Amino acid sequence: MKSVLKPHFRSLLLVFLVSTGSAWAQAETQVEVFKSPQCGCCGKWINHLQQNDFQVNTHEVNDVPAAGKKLGMPDRLGSCHTARVGDYVIEGHVPAADIQRLLKEKPQALGLAVPSMPPGSPGMETAKPVPYETLLVQGTAAPAFLPDTKP
Hints:
It contains 4 helices and 7 strands, in the order H-E-H-E-H-E-E-H-E-E-E. By secondary structure, the protein is of the alpha/beta class. The N and C termini lie far apart (66 Å).
């Protein structure tokens, strides 16, 4: 009887360890998004984040600029939605890869911004993308540019 239970116990232990490890590996980063109820491109950007392992909580607001301002984002960098991830503010159609980089490198900054709504940015896909840059926003000072420029 002992020989039957011992392999069974090992199998259960292995299943437990594998399932626990995969749960840790799949932990998603929480993002709070503040967007207008009428904006369709914001939903596409949210889908982009979700496809890149972010857990998104959406807040429909009537005054997106006020939400950004409340979080400290300068008006001149405004877009159609503002988000918060950890201690950072994300303004506009910022690529998920740039947010992941921000969270990995943890610079002292307010957050990231892609001002306006550039065609070709996540959520604003088009056959004719325009070059745009993701800005590293340092408080209310002039933003710094991330070295990688988007197409």
